[in-house]
Design a protein that fits this description.
234 residues, alpha/beta, 5-stranded parallel β-sheet, 4-stranded antiparallel β-sheet, 12 strands, 42% helix
Amino acid sequence: MKTHFDLLLVEDDPNLSMIIQDYLEMQGYKTTLAKDGHEGFEAFKKKKYDLLLLDVMMPRKDGFTLAADIRKTDQQTPIIFLTAKAMKEDRIAGFKAGCDDYITKPFSSEELSLRIKAVLKRCSIPISSKIEPLDVFFMGDFTFDVNNMTLSSETFQKVLTRREAELLGFLCENKGQLLKREQILNAVWGNDDYFNGRSMDVFIAKLRKYLKSDPRIQITNVHGTGFRLEVIGE
């Protein structure tokens, strides 16, 4: 069991960043502070962190751009955005950039602590524990290797993000069955709130894009109910 966690906090407001850093260290987190997106990316490249807290509106490199740059080489480390932007379009943009959670300013220290704990707990669960006993799924032309989180065919290979792999694994495990939206959300995201629901729709669209070269594979949307993974002929 890990006894401490290393966090990277990227926040350009010096007063807020010091308050957050002090609070996190009081909670037992070892916290590295960066003052803008460029400095945050340099800090990320130098060390392995357990979780990244990224402000969205920052000089030199905004949080969404920073997250996208990080996701080019690291699909695993969880990201929480800190932002004053409360529009649902901004939240969706955050999930598209690869975040695991989104906290709108102003927030309480208790909310921050609970969200960090929830993300760390969720992300520390090995993916294989959710989709055993199979380690490899075969779908039409595609092979999905659970342990390595790879989706491949003769003409395509993709290393999935943790969330993509968990979602695809859950669909594969229940192939041919209609899964209610709340079932998927609770199994993969940990709760079925509105914003996680919008995030799930984004990830479903990504999986469809990856699988589109084989028309036999369909992730069918049953309007208002949920999704079903089907492979025609199997």
